[in-house]
């Protein structure tokens, strides 16, 4: 029996009151947190990967990913307004589909948040290493004099050894999260402003420079392949990472003032703003300098992150698909060297806000799982001075930092998407189940046309999952099996509901 040990929604709210967090975030802060979580590595780094998979068709990939996220956002808004506590999709499924499904979702969210934060750390280090290699620091040193040794620029699986900068940024964000949510939110607001300015400058320059000829052929990789990972759908499955994080707003429900009103505002507003920017940036990048992929002997786009792709890029360094810092690269190719450098600096300064929000979401989910007895109690300990779940924050930060030092960004992003898609699908299904089981329960926000929107959200998640790379699918399955083992050995016996205890 899968749907068992269902924790009543009223009891979930009571449990939260027993060991609660301080409510201190308003609608503007939540929207900024959402934008901070969304605008990051996906648009600053993975634009090149999306172009390699689908060429100019990456514009359609942005639209497809946005539609799936938009449908899921309505479902998240309804449940977050009904159940304004930490835990996001994990908490919602616990109250609707039971403990086992909740555990699977909570465990999968590690892929979304922790692995997602790891990917952003790697993306940040790419921009930082690029700046160190190209800057002369206002003429004070020779270009590249400040560059790190190649061994320390990338992880061992990317041809290097230890990505030092990715490791250090993970440690820095962990410290910031420990010292307090309100402090983190204020810093995040500044970083979001920097990102918005950088993307606005990019759009104002790149969009007017776009030429229709650069958009042909529009679909060099077609719509997709049976194995996934290529074409427009493969690009959409990858670029989906560019939208991952907006649901992290819901993990802040327990720290939000008037969550019934403010959570839906934060979720939907952040997604709309980010989608507009993404479409303009995608069109500007593809239209201004072209976005044609490197093709193999079979006439199809080469797989990203392979030796064949690296070899093809040796003689095509000016191609968008070969850049580790695509937005800065576009500006430089268009002749705006200094602006390109400043966009690179903006990414370096602002990307930590994405790491912050993803790690924030991860720690709040583990905090809630610990409070439910599925993880050790120490993970829900609250710091006496900073009033944050410091133990799980330190643990999450250590894992994120070490993984960032070793693994490549593209594979990390795809793996992160696998966990996200499961969570989105479960939340959408949860809305429909509650509509049937508890039709009279107060709903401060109602998903419009729920019986159309939610099934479409589920189908969209299934479609994108099918088009993820084989590596991402295998990692997802292996991670799920490990999670089931952990649950059987610990959570199954220690859960507060194990013996009918719902305290």
Molecular structure report:
The protein has 503 residues and is mostly helical. It has a single domain, classed as Amino acid/polyamine transporter I. 65% of the residues lie in helices and 0% in strands. It is built from 20 helices and no strands. Helix 6 runs parallel beside helix 18 (409-437) and helix 8 runs antiparallel to helix 17. The radius of gyration is 22 Å and the shape is globular.
Task: Provide the descriptors you would attach to this structure in a database record.
about 500 residues; mainly alpha; about 0% strand
Question: Layout of helices and strands, plus pairs?
Answer:
Elements lengths: L8 H10 L8 H12 L2 H4 L2 H8 L3 H25 L5 H9 L2 H36 L29 H16 L1 H26 L24 H9 L8 H4 L7 H31 L17 H8 L11 H8 L3 H14 L1 H20 L18 H15 L4 H29 L12 H17 L3 H25 L9
Helix pairs in contact: 2-9, 2-12, 2-16, 4-10, 5-10, 5-12, 5-18, 5-19, 6-7, 6-18, 7-8, 7-15, 7-16, 7-17, 7-18, 7-20, 8-16, 8-17, 9-12, 9-15, 10-19, 14-15, 16-17, 18-19, 18-20
**CATH H-level superfamily:** Amino acid/polyamine transporter I
Total beta strands: 0
User: Shape from CA axes?
Assistant: globular
Order of helices and strands: HHHHHHHHHHHHHHHHHHHH
Report Rg: 22 Å
**Count, helices:** 20
Tally of separate domains: 1
CATH topology: Amino acid/polyamine transporter I
Main β sheet profile? none
Uncertain parts: none
What percent of residues adopt helix (DSSP H or I)? 55-70%
Broad structural category: mainly alpha
Residue share in β-strands? under 5%
User: Architecture in CATH?
Assistant: Up-down Bundle
| CATH domain class name | Mainly Alpha
How many angstroms does the end-to-end distance come to? Answer: 23 Å
> What is the averaged pLDDT score?
80
């Amino acid at each position: 029996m899968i749907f068992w040990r269902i924790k009543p929604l009223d009891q979930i709210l009571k449990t939260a009151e027993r060991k609660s967090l301080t409510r201190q975030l308003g609608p503007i802060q939540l929207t900024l947190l959402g934008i901070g979580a969304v605008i990051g590595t996906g648009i600053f780094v993975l634009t090149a990967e999306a172009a390699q998979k689908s060429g100019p068709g990456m514009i359609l990939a942005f639209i497809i990913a946005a539609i799936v996220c938009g449908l899921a956002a309505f479902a998240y808004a309804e449940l977050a307004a009904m159940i304004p506590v930490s835990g996001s999709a994990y908490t919602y499924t616990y109250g609707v589909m039971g403990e086992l499904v909740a555990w699977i979702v909570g465990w999968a969210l590690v892929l979304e948040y922790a692995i997602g934060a790891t990917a952003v750390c790697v993306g940040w280090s790419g921009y930082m290493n690029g700046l160190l290699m190209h800057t002369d620091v206002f003429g004070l040193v020779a270009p590249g004099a400040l560059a790190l040794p190649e061994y320390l620029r990338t992880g061992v699986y990317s041809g290097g050894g230890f990505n030092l900068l990715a490791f250090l940024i993970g440690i820095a964000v962990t410290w910031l999260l420990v010292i307090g949510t309100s402090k983190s939110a204020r810093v995040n607001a500044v970083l979001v402003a920097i990102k918005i300015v950088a993307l606005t400058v990019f759009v104002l320059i790149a969009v007017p420079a776009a030429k229709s000829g650069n958009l042909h052929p529009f679909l060099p990789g077609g719509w997709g392949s049976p194995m996934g990972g290529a074409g427009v759908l493969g690009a959409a499955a990858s670029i989906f990472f560019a939208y991952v994080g907006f649901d992290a707003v819901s993990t802040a429900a327990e720290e939000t003032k008037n969550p019934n009103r403010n959570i839906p505002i934060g979720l939907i507003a952040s997604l709309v703003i980010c989608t507009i920017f993404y479409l303009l940036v995608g069109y500007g990048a593809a239209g201004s300098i072209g976005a044609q992929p490197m093709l193999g002997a079979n006439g199809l786009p080469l797989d990203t992150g392979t030796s064949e792709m690296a070899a093809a890029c040796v003689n095509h360094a000016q191609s968008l698909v070969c850049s580790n810092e695509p937005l800065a690269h576009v500006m430089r190719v268009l002749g705006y060297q200094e602006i390109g450098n400043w966009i690179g600096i903006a990414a370096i300064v602002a990307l930590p806000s994405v790491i912050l929000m993803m790690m924030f979401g991860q720690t709040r989910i583990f905090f809630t799982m610990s409070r439910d007895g599925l993880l050790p109690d120490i993970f829900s300990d609250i710091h006496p001075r900073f009033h944050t779940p410091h133990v799980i924050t330190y643990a999450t930060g250590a894992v994120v930092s070490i993984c960032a030092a070793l693994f490549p960004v593209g594979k990390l992003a795809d793996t992160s998407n696998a966990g996200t898609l499961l969570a989105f699908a479960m939340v959408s299904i949860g809305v429909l189940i509650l509509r049937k089981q508890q039709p009279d329960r107060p709903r401060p926000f109602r998903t419009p046309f729920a019986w159309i929107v939610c099934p479409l959200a589920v189908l969209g998640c299934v479609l994108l999952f099918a088009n993820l790379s084989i590596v991402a699918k295998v990692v997802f399955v292996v991670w799920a099996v490990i999670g089931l083992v952990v649950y059987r050995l610990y959570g199954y016996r220690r859960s507060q509901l194990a013996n009918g205890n719902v305290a």
